[in-house]
Every structure is written in C-alpha cells, then in structure tokens.
Amino acid sequence: MANSHIVTDESSQEANRSETRISKGRMTQQRNSILFSIREDYSPLQQHGRSTSHSRTRSGYNRRRGRYEDTYRMEPPVGHKLDLIRIRRIATSVIETAIAGYIYDGNQAREFTGVLAERIRSQIQQLPFPRYKIVTQVSIGQNKGQHLFIASRCLWDPKLDHHVTITKEILNAYITATIFFVYTE
Q1: Rounded to 5°, angle at Cα 50 from 46 and 56
Q2: Tell me: the pLDDT tens digits for 103-121?
Q3: Could you give all domains of the chain from N- to C-terminal order, each with its CATH number?
C-alpha cells in the first residue's frame, strides 16, 4: 500500500507540473496580484517600466516639479551677438593652415573640402554664439586663369542671420569658403 500511495503522489505531482506549464501565464498573474495586494505603494505598471497618470507614486518621491515658461526669445542677448570680424579671422587662419603646401588633385578634392569644412565649423562652434545654426560650404577648383563667381540665396531674417565668405588662391587652386549663421528662435 505504501508503494501505491507513493505512485499516486508522484502522478499528482506530474499533473500539477503539467498544469503549471500549460497555465504558466495565469499562475504568474495570480502570484503577481498577491504581491501587489501586499505592497500598497507598488503598481504593476511601474514594474514593466510604464507609467500612467493613474499609477501610484513611490514612497518618498514627489511628482510635482517646477514648471518653466517658454522664453519666446526672438533675438540673441546683447552679449551674444555675432562678431563677424572674429569669425572671419578664425576661418581665415584655418584655411591658410590647411592650404599651406597644398597641391590640387581632382581625385582627393572632395575629401579635402569635407575635412576643411568640418575644421572651420568645429572652430567656430567653440565661440559663445548659442542658438545659431552654422552651415559651412567649401568649394575648391583648379586654377587655370579662369574667373569664377559663386552665388547663393537664402530665405532668412537679414537682421539676425549673417554669412561670411572667404576666398583664397594658391598657385594651382582656388578655395572659397562660405559660412552661414542662422538664428533659431
């Protein structure tokens, strides 16, 4: 009899295991709901990283935060207006350093202009001109005695937005760099 009792217990344990496997989702939900009812400050939505306006706050955590009004700043502050002379001086020094000893090669001109534009932009971004978007355009070409004019058009506010154009010629190439400054409100 003892053996038949053991067999019955083992078969009931196997049945419980199969039920647990089949209804694992249901069993997990029941266990979690027990945990949720024990802890009053715990929300099931916070467990999964989701939050709603109906979820409970954690103990010691204040949901109220300070509200800030929009500034609606339409112009830069007085101390942060563009200094075009300083910008021109920095960009000219970067260009002169880059073209010292440069010999024009049509195959590598594209890479050279990209690197030069990035250098100019990174040097100018270090200046304290917040809220200005900086766009740098560099053109390079072989100099064979021809004339070249580069023109551009922009839709912008002439009071706040500016540009600087620098042109340098060396023995066998010309370089034109245009830097646009667009104020973002």
Answers
A1: 45
A2: 999 999 999 999 999 999 9
A3: 1-67 (no CATH), 78-183 (3.30.1140.40)
